From TrEMBL:
GO terms for molecular function: DNA-binding transcription factor activity; transcription cis-regulatory region binding. InterPro entries: Homeodomain-like_sf, HTH-type_TetR-like_transc_reg, HTH_TetR, MftR_C. This is Transcriptional regulator. Residues 55-74 bind DNA. Coiled coil: none annotated. Residues 32-92 form the HTH tetR-type domain. SUPFAM superfamilies: Homeodomain-like. PANTHER family: HTH-TYPE TRANSCRIPTIONAL REGULATOR RUTR, MYCOFACTOCIN BIOSYNTHESIS TRANSCRIPTIONAL REGULATOR MFTR-RELATED.
Length: 225
């Protein structure tokens, strides 16, 4: 085989490899879209009907897939409901990893948190949610059967944020206090944001709440005056 033939073969292999990667990327995107659709379907139905009145079959039908497809993504309806909470934690960690290395830590975390909350439900983005929707959300997050799933999702997100903070600061996420403390503070701050947002019939925009809460942390949490 001469050099020209080798070059031609390499081009063909490179083209086919690119096609394969594109196909895999498309499959992964479709899988992620299906997962998101199932999770939002689970949330919508739970908010509208109440947790006990929602079946896996209902969630699958709402998302336009079979129950078998549902089982490829989630083991229980609780997992599907809490999946967006889990995804948000991962999204915050991922966005933090992409922030400039020299950016002050709380500025970076604020920007990453805002990016993570861009995963919000389309029906509530940019406007005050309907009171009935808020009431349903309150019942959903207080549902005893979901507390274990919420705890697992929160712990996973906190651990991932700690790892990213450790990367940024040259510390160890498993043994050093700093990354664990920062990640725990982020988790506590997000809990405050959630309580504030759900605690009124006319909640402030999430972005505004996030900026206030994390701004106070960045300032060293001074006493109110």
């Amino acid at each position: 085989m001469n050099n020209l033939q080798i070059m031609q073969l390499c081009r063909i292999c490179k083209f086919r490899y690119g096609e394969l990667m594109d196909a895999r990327g498309l499959r992964e995107r479709k899988k992620q879209e299906t997962r998101i659709a199932l999770s939002w379907a689970a949330i919508r139905l739970t908010v509208e009907r109440g947790y006990a009145q929602v079946r896996i079959e209902d969630i699958a039908a709402e998302a336009g897939v079979s129950t078998r497809t549902f089982s490829n993504y989630f083991g229980t309806k609780g997992e599907a409901i809490v999946a967006r909470h889990h995804d948000r934690g991962r999204a915050i960690a991922s966005a933090l990893r992409e922030r400039p290395a020299g950016e002050p830590i709380w500025e970076a975390i604020t920007a990453a948190t805002l990016a993570g909350f861009a995963l919000g439900e389309p029906v509530t983005e940019g406007r005050v949610p309907d009171p009935s929707w808020l009431a349903g959300i309150r019942l959903m997050v207080a549902e005893p059967a979901l507390q274990g799933e919420f705890h697992k999702a929160g712990a996973a997100g906190e651990a991932e944020i700690a790892r990213v903070v450790a990367e940024r600061t040259g510390t160890d996420a498993e043994t050093d206090v700093y990354p664990q403390l920062v990640a725990g503070t982020v988790a506590a701050a997000l809990a405050v944001v959630t309580r504030q947002w759900l605690g009124t019939e006319s909640p402030r925009p999430l972005e505004e709440l996030i900026r206030e809460v994390f701004g106070r942390l960045a300032a060293g949490l001074p006493e109110p005056r």
